[in-house]
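Why do we care about 3D structure at all? Because function follows from shape, and shape follows, mostly, from sequence. That is the central idea of this module. The next example makes it concrete: a single protein chain, its amino acid sequence, and then its structure expressed as tokens.
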Amino acid sequence: MYHWIEDKEFLKRMRGLCSNIVNQLVQSINNDGAMIVEAHLVGSGAKNLETQNANEPIDLDYNISLIRVDAYDINEGYNIKEYIRKAFNKVLKLNGWSDCSDSTSCLTTEKRHFTQGNHTEFSIDVAIVCESKDTWYRLIHEKTGIISNDRWFWNEGPNSNGLVEKVEWLKDNDCWNEVRDTYLDKKNMYLRRNDHNHPSFNCYIEAVNEVYNKY
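And the structure:
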């Protein structure tokens, strides 16, 4: 089951290292001119809600948001993900990391750990997202086992409208501990169901909406 990570020094070091690598990716892409992107640490890492399942590795989730795409059509999902994947691998190599892997909904790095202090393994998950009319979409790679039959499409994310305002209201009204409890409950609920289609950011949005709507 998931539990809170209490080692604040480890969390600070991990966030600093991973965010530095992702920021290098953003600079590399934006300097190249094919597209303009922004990166955001999302889900648990953005709100100091990092959890760990027993002693398993943990991951930090980042969204690479497409602000403008010049070299490709927005529906060229394969080309967009391949461009970002190759750019990510170049940055990872410069930092002494191995190539990332292409999963269904994100680009995932190898697992790393610090040689001193807390030895918990961690990795970086980078999702590619875009926004249209206040709704965000995640680029999905639907794998079939035969690359020519694979499909790339934009999948609508959970309702995140007014998320910042909801979070502020919940904190101002002393409801944040309930959000934390609800978030942890959702992580463990999906774990028990063996449901891997609800990353931390989705669980976070669901928890905020559920508690906000309750009150």
